[in-house]
């Protein structure tokens, strides 16, 4: 396989669709009074979602690892945690931790972000990073568009706050507060990200 990068974009599109579907299905179950065993059905849905993310994580690491080795594959994962406004790469780890150990998605993402920053800090070498496409792109961002990295990190955390609130609402019966300002903030940050990205030379 000469270029495995398509698998990331497949991950991004497919997992985003899966998350949206998960939320919509949970909402439909929530509003239907005639459905029996709601809790059991929702738990099965959560298990399916978690297993899907675990599966994509293993497949992605396998594909990138076979192409570049595990070290570079891990660095690519760390880079993606910092440069994409949709938190799908972090969710590959944080969602299973939330499901099976009840660790808040935000707490997991803070740790993932710190690990990613330190990994890049201690491994960063421009020549080494220029040897693979995501590395080249990250070097370009560091040199010209650091704002894009900041916007990505901010949007990732806002997106995870929204998703954590969704999970708490459907699985822990907690009130979903501040939905509108969170969605508005997330939309604005993503639009700013896209504006900077498409105007990047």
Furnish the topology, listing elements before pairings.
Blueprint: H1 6-31, H2 38-68, H3 70-83, H4 88-101, H5 105-123, H6 126-129, H7 133-144, H8 146-171, H9 179-198
Helix pairs in contact: 1-2, 2-3, 2-4, 3-5, 4-5, 5-8, 7-8, 8-9
Transmembrane segments: 6-25, 45-68, 74-93, 105-126, 146-164, 176-198
Keywords: Membrane, Transmembrane, Transmembrane helix
Short description:
With 201 residues, the protein is mainly α. It contains nine helices and no strands. The two termini are 29 Å apart.
Give a short account of the largest sheet: none
Helix coverage percent: over 70%
How much is the average pLDDT?
91
Write down the Rg: 18 Å
| Assembly of the depicted chains | single chain
| DSSP E strands, number | 0
State the separation between the terminal residues, measured CA to CA.
Answer: 29 Å
DSSP helical segment count: 9
Shape summary: globular
Low-confidence stretches: none
User: Which percent range describes the beta-strand content?
Assistant: under 5%
Q: Please trace the helix and strand order, writing H or E for each element.
A: HHHHHHHHH
Structural class: mainly alpha
Number of domains: 1
List keywords for this structure.
201 residues, mainly alpha, 9 helices, 83% helix, transmembrane, transmembrane helix, membrane
How would you describe what is shown here?
The chain is mostly helical and 201 residues long. Helix 8 runs antiparallel to helix 9. The longest helix is centred in the first third of the chain and has 31 residues. The two termini are 29 Å apart. The chain has one domain. The mean pLDDT is 91. It contains nine helices and no strands. The protein is globular, with a radius of gyration of 18 Å. Keywords: Membrane, Transmembrane, Transmembrane helix.
């Amino acid at each position: 396989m000469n270029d495995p990068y398509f698998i990331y974009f497949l991950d991004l599109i497919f997992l985003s669709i899966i998350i949206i579907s998960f939320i919509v299905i949970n909402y439909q179950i929530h509003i239907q009074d005639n459905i029996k065993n709601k809790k059991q059905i929702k738990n099965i849905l959560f298990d399916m979602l978690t297993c899907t993310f675990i599966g994509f994580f293993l497949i992605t690491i396998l594909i990138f690892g076979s192409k570049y080795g595990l070290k570079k594959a891990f660095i690519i994962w760390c880079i993606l945690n910092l440069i994409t406004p949709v938190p799908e790469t972090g969710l590959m780890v944080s969602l299973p931790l939330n499901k099976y150990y009840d660790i808040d998605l935000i707490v997991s993402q803070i740790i993932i972000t710190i690990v990613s920053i330190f990994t890049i800090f201690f491994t960063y070498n421009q020549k080494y990073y220029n040897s693979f496409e995501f590395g080249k792109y990250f070097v370009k961002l560091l040199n010209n568009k650091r704002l894009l990295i900041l916007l990505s990190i901010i949007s990732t955390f806002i997106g995870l706050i929204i998703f954590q609130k969704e999970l708490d609402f459907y699985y822990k019966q907690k009130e979903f507060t501040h939905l509108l300002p969170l969605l508005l903030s997330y939309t604005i940050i993503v639009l700013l990200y896209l504006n900077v990205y498409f105007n990047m030379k």
